[in-house]
Specification:
With 147 residues, the protein is an alpha+beta fold. The chain has one domain: Sufe protein. Chain: A (Alpha-Beta Complex), CATH 3.90.1010. 41% of the residues lie in helices and 17% in strands. The protein has six helices and three strands, in the order αβββααααα. A hairpin with a 6-residue loop joins strand 1 and strand 2. The radius of gyration is 15 Å and the shape is globular.
Amino acid sequence: MYSQKVMDHFMNPRNVGEIPDADGIGEVGNAKCGDIMKMYLKIENNIIVDAKFKTFGCGAAVATSSMATEMVKGKTIEEALAITNKAVAEALDGLPPIKMHCSNLAEEAIKAAIEDYMRKNGKSGNGNGSCGVCCRKCEDVHSQYEE
């Protein structure tokens, strides 16, 4: 059912914990399954120098969180934003179809943490309700004001 890499990242997750002085923090969840991911990023000169996570969820959620933190370390913000749920799943040698939503959360957690960093540093927002980083969190907020 699960690949060796998924099992390894579940049994020996990398980068678990918090970064007390994180530059960006993103928290996302899936109401359908109850998984919650919180990602912490330390960013210096546009490079993600550290990443940690806390996840409440199934083994696949823990594994995708672990892999996502490994994938973003050393990347520029732009490179990290390009990481897709498919890339996370592929790095784990695949996920069962019923668990692909976990890789979606990992992608969204990366984007939410980067958006938090950008907002804190005045790099976010263009005045039209779009920040340029799509974590999909704002869709519900902005749709309630549209007619």
